Sequence to fold (144 residues):
Amino acid sequence: MKKTETETLYARGHPNISAKHRTTIEITTMGDLTTRGDCIIAIGSNKGAKQLGESFKKLAKKENSTITMIIKVDNQTETIRGQGNPRLTFSHPHDLVVRKSSYYSDRTIMINADKAAMDLDRKLVEKLRRPEKEVEIILRAEAP
Fold:
């Protein structure tokens, strides 16, 4: 039977969100965004990687763990699936980064993801460009 841990965070949109990055998705606690941040899909998050719960991090670090991210804006959702890894540290205070590759850093919360920012539904990205929109992000870690 698989163990599951879930984290929910809240962020908001920004007019400079382009979601054009080919290999990553990022959510940040920072309150502003320049046009260079083409992987960032939400700002002002109430949690960075470091603030995720210990039980979530412990499960996500297990060998063969899977991680799912669900992004919700209004009635629209997008699901990204990837892997956890024992090398993930979850130690960055501001950023949460999902990667299509197996590269990891203190900001990485998922590797080998099935989507990057450029793969997100463009209707969702339009909503993410609106600063008044609340973005709900659900993270689920599962491991045998």
Summary: The beta strands are 3-12, 24-28, 40-42, 66-73, 76-83, 95-99, 108-110, 134-143. The mean pLDDT is 96. DSSP finds two helices and eight strands in the chain.
